[in-house]
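Hey all, quick one. A colleague (J.T.) asked me to put the erythose-4-phosphate job into the tracker so the inputs and the structure tokens live in one place instead of scattered across chat threads. No bug as far as I know, just bookkeeping. Sequence used:
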Amino acid sequence: MEIFADTASLDELKELLSWGIISGCTTNPKICAKEGVEFKTRMKDILHLVNGPVSIEVTTNDYDLMLKEAKEYSSWGKNAVVKVPMNANGLKAVKILKEMGIKTNVTACMSTKQAILPALAGADYVSIFWARIEDMGYNAQAVAEETVKVFKDSNVKSKIILGSFRQVSHINRAMLTGTHILTIPPQIIKEMVTNPKTTETIQEFLDNWESFKKGQKNH
Ligand code: E4P
């Protein structure tokens, strides 16, 4: 299983990359708007920084405009993956972009029956949105497990990305599904690092070491 960072923040990405745990990045128009910076420049910076796939989402549902944006994004870096919406135009775009050698990630899938379609069309990645599935009252873990099984049984090559995480408990459950990738906001990745018992244990060891050193000085 791999972890991608779900962010367009350069500072956050630099920090997480320095930990050696991130192998890709995902963005979307909402995440990019939050940064409030020039889109092309920021995406190029991220493509340069991340030594792995970076998903950049089209800003339209129009098929021709999707292809136009896709061609532009793919010229920004070899690791660019064009994120397209899960709809009929998105599927059409996946097919044609694959023929052009452009990688795709189909975003905002909410069910297994949706997710299998881009996989059959040849998408490199299919993104399933955990918290938004739960918002609708469904069990995201069951949807993810079912999709993992159907992808295996159908022998499709697409990698499943689980995203839309809002809390650490989502990650605990998502890791059990057999998904290929989790894309996680930096703040939640940071929460995964810490555990009060770990902090307490490490402090106990340090305190014992300090006492031992003090005792040695006094002899
Ligand atoms: C994934 O690629 C998306 O960027 C992201 O996880 C969207 O999730 P959210 O808008 O529900 O937070």
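Adding what we noticed when we looked at it: The two ends are 52 Å apart (CA to CA). The pocket of erythose-4-phosphate is lined by residues 6, 26, 28, 31, 107, 127, 129, 131-132, 163-164, 183 (CB under 6 Å).
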